[in-house]
Amino acid sequence: MTVFVADKLPDEAISELENLGQNVINHPTATASDLDSGLSDANVLIVRSTVVSKSCIENSPNLSLIVRAGAGVNNIDIEAASNLGIYVANCPGKNAIAVAELTMGLIVSLDRYLGDNVVDFKAGKWNKATYSKADGLYGKVLGVIGVGQIGSEVITRAKAFGMPVIAWSRSLTPQKAEELDIIHAESIEEVASKCDILSVHLAINNQTKGIISKEVLSKLKDGAYFINTSRAGIVDEDALFEELKSGRIKAGLDVISDEPEFKQGEFTSRFQELDNVYVSHHIGASTKQAQLAVASDAVDIVRGYVQEGQVRNWLNRCEHTDAPWQLVVRHYDKPGVIANVMNELKQADINAQELTNVIFEGKQTACCTIQLDAEPSSEIMKSIRTRQDEVISATLIQL
Ligand SMILES: NC(=O)c1ccc[n+]([C@@H]2O[C@H](COP(=O)([O-])OP(=O)(O)OC[C@H]3O[C@@H](n4cnc5c(N)ncnc54)[C@H](O)[C@@H]3O)[C@@H](O)[C@H]2O)c1
Ligand SMILES: O=C(O)CC[C@@H](O)C(=O)O
């Protein structure tokens, strides 16, 4: 197989892929436009933030697996991949600690004006007078939106700072909050109005786009900090800009909507004109520790695929087929048995949606489970059962 790596992965990961016997094409500086015209040979594509568009997917005839070496998958056109039966997988949680560390770093930096301290120092200015006005973090309430892998790591670290935590997450119950020793909020607005620092850790999708709305931001206390290390689209960025311009709040952002695709070069952003915002260069995941952990997970996904045909962390699998019937056929393990069962179903225009076949010790017998979109008639069932040299039993289950 050919594995195309369209982003920077550690050298160790490239060697591991080669050691799997794969033909590896390593393109660490690839951009979306490099991929848009398609990859003629690639069977597997590994990316970090590089955009994998519909055009790339539709013009890559041999592509069967896309691995996101990271958590968020909004840079991959998953619908286009699903339409062509291409697996999409990611590496969740492997960079969560790194992002949580940056989150705490942004909070400390805002409180102590660390960015400005350094800029003034390099410019030959001593400014203890201005930078001695930090508030301190102990006892400040941290609001967390999204208690997933990163949100959980942030909570752990906030507690070590002596910061009480109030959180909202779609699956956070009062009981779970009690177990985590945090305060449960009924809504994002409630968190925003009660916290001193609001940090967002949601995945971006149709439901979460713009979820940190103008209204949510307006609920923040005067002097509050807003931290975003998730995705720019989670927040109404125009509303955020206006709040920051008014000087009412401060922000630490690792993600902004005009983030350049290139890794190094000149660029402009409206946030550059504001003193009360620190923008880091989308480096949440970029510690050596996290990159090694993510890359090793990505290689492991490829290993499972090429060696066992299994895709770990498969994201675009249909969770529920809605198949109303399941046919379980225990059978002798010999050629044509499943084909004969499928032929019976085909003649009745019944579609098999998911099919698994497992084999018993001794390799004499096997069991095939088939999910069906319609009920086979008693004649079909009888016909399947009649082949006694092939079929041990055939059972129909309504799901
Ligand atoms: N700055 C960086 O470099 C960096 C690195 C890693 C991840 N991220 C971003 O952080 C996000 C979170 O990462 P994670 O590892 O914690 O992921 P995760 O899957 O563990 O957590 C995602 C959270 O989003 C919530 N969520 C998802 N869909 C939702 C919906 N429709 N409504 C309400 N809540 C919803 C989940 O319930 C969960 O709490 C990623 O999706 C990615 O965009 C950024
Ligand atoms: O790979 C990166 O540099 C960023 C990854 C990060 O945004 C993620 O979602 O995992």
Summed up:
The protein has helices spanning 11-19, 32-36, 54-58, 78-83, 96-112, 114-122, 128-131, 149-160, 174-180, 188-194, 214-219, 237-245, 288-308, 337-347, 378-386, and strands spanning 2-5, 23-26, 44-47, 65-68, 87-90, 142-145, 165-168, 183-184, 197-200, 225-228, 250-253, 277-279, 325-332, 352-359, 365-372, 391-398. With 399 residues, the chain is of the alpha/beta class.
Structure, described:
With 399 residues, the chain is an alpha/beta fold. It folds into three domains: 2-94 and 289-308, Rossmann fold (3-Layer(aba) Sandwich), CATH 3.40.50; 96-284, 3-Layer(aba) Sandwich (Rossmann fold); 325-398, ACT domain (Alpha-Beta Plaits, 2-Layer Sandwich), CATH 3.30.70.260. It is built from 15 helices and 16 strands. The protein has a seven-stranded parallel β-sheet, sandwiched between helices. Helix 1 runs parallel beside helix 13 and helix 5 (96-112) crosses helix 8 (149-160). The longest helix has 21 residues, at 288-308. Bound molecules: nicotinamide-adenine-dinucleotide (NAD) and (2R)-2-hydroxypentanedioic acid (2HG). It catalyses: (2R)-3-phosphoglycerate + NAD(+) = 3-phosphooxypyruvate + NADH + H(+); (R)-2-hydroxyglutarate + NAD(+) = 2-oxoglutarate + NADH + H(+).
Please describe the structure with a list of short key phrases separated by commas or semicolons.
34% helix; 399 residues; Alpha-Beta Plaits; binds nicotinamide-adenine-dinucleotide; oxidoreductase; binds (2R)-2-hydroxypentanedioic acid; Rossmann fold; seven-stranded parallel sheet; 16 strands; elongated
